[in-house]
Amino acid sequence: MNKSRVIAGITSLVLIMGLATGCGNSSNSSSAHNGSSATGKNTPVTLKMWGGVPPESGPQQVVDNWNKEHPDIQVEYVRYVNDDDGNLKLDTAMITGQDVDLFVNYTISHAAKRVESGLALDLSGYTDYNIEEKMGADTASWKIDGKFYGVPTTKSPFFIALNKDALDKAGLPVPKEWTWDELREYAKKLKSGNSYGFIQNMEPFVDPIDSVLSQEGYTKQDGTSNLDHPLVRQWLETLNGMMQDDKTTPPLGEQLTSKMPVEQVFLSGEVPMLNIGAWLLRSSNNFTDFPRDFKIAFAPVPRLTESASDYVTRGGLGDYISINAKSKKQEAAWEFLKWYSDGGMSPMAAGGRLPASKDARQEDALKSLIGDKSDSYDLDSLMYVMFDNKTPTYVRSLPQEVMDLRSQEYEKYFLGSQSLDQTVQAMAARHNEYLKQKK
User: Who's near 220: CB < 8 A, 6+ residues apart?
Assistant: First the structure.
């Protein structure tokens, strides 16, 4: 049985139990909002914020900065691991009335389920902070039934990290826009001996497909699957050629079975190009565990489309922070959330999380992002991919079941157990079955 269905079932069961036992605690009195005790004496409000980032990667510094300036509202950070078990732990904590005042959603699907379960507060009642004006047009992808149940606080850039020294030696410029065919040529020229020219973190591995289908549609006009789109086929063929013919990127089977530590491989200088997201900076700033003697440059993720004007890249906004609809400290939580969103979160940049608000200071975020390591980066390309690239973005919203079925099929292709034609047909057929079940 699909693990996500099991978790959904458990969460539903716990929700029913929580509603049955917690219906008498729904009152959010104004005194509770303002931190006043039953005796009328003002006492500090303590907020619990749950998030998936390790405290040492920014959250603890954020909380410490706030607490120093706001003795009347103190915040404690609670780490949960952003996986199935960790998200279930967070949901169960809220449903059973444990202390959760603010929480971070890392996908729109998790946020939507929490809204459906009555766990996320509708923020439309607050009129003193314009989320769309602050964060821009990409906020539209985080609306649920036309409303905000959280604030998308971060920019989430993905990019190709490049060994600038290796590029210079090969006479290759740092691209500001390029195609997968061009990256393939770079990988050939950068390959040295038996080493590879290009490796990928598995999280953004499949993004090229979603870049196309987020615009073209995951279904065709007749309602059938679009997973057999010609550019899906092209992506499969290109990568397989790099794995099998060029030998410039590791075969998928090798990468999965070895659990290749791609960040370490890149930072050691062994492979000169890495497809990854901004979290790379956590490791690339850490010269103790990842010593390096080369400068890192950055390029946008290449496109499959012919025209750059038709291209969208994964990124947009993330770290969607909600207020618990059951919290008795919602006003205090809102004050903290506004401060956090407008730049209080700048220390999070140390872990690759950039503030999305137009009112946050880029220089503060950049300082947190690279600290005293500025000499080890190509700053022009870093600023471009982090702040200046205006390529439209998408947020992956495909149901997990569809992501699972397509990965199961393309893995067979990359492992050599089925042909390209069989793979494309199987992905579309299984997607069509899924679509029929959802009708």
Answer: 226
pLDDT at residue 41 in the model: 54
> With 90 as the cut, is the pLDDT of residue 260 above it?
yes
Residues in the chain: 439
pTM score over 0.85? no
**How far, in Å, CA of 176 to CA of 166, rounded?**
17
DSSP per residue, 257-287:
HHT--HHHHHHTTSSSEEEEETTHHHHHT-T
Sheet holding 151-155, edge to edge: 73-79, 45-51, 102-105, 317-323, 151-155, 354-355
Please report the pLDDT score of residue 141 as a whole number. 85
- Residue 40: its H or E element: none
What is the CA angle 37-40-43, rounded to 5?
45
Give CA–CA dist 421/414, Å, rounded.
Answer: 13
Q: Which residues of 166-264 form beta strands (DSSP E)?
A: 199-200
CA distances from 173 to 164, 266, 345, 427 (A): 9, 19, 34, 37
Confidence of residue 33 (pLDDT cuts 50, 70, 90): very low
Element (H, E) at 182: helix 180-190
Contact 252, 261 (CB under 8 A): no
Band (pLDDT 50/70/90 cuts) for residue 224 is very high
Could you tell me if 378 and 294 are in contact, meaning their C-beta atoms sit under 8 angstroms apart? no
Comparing CA positions, the residue from 211, 206, 172, 214 lying closest to residue 189 is 172
Q: What is the pLDDT of residues 287-326, one digit of tens each?
A: 999 999 999 999 999 999 989 888 999 887 899 999 999 9
pLDDT at residue 228, as a whole number:
97
Q: Is 42 helix (H, G, I), strand (E, B) or coil?
A: strand
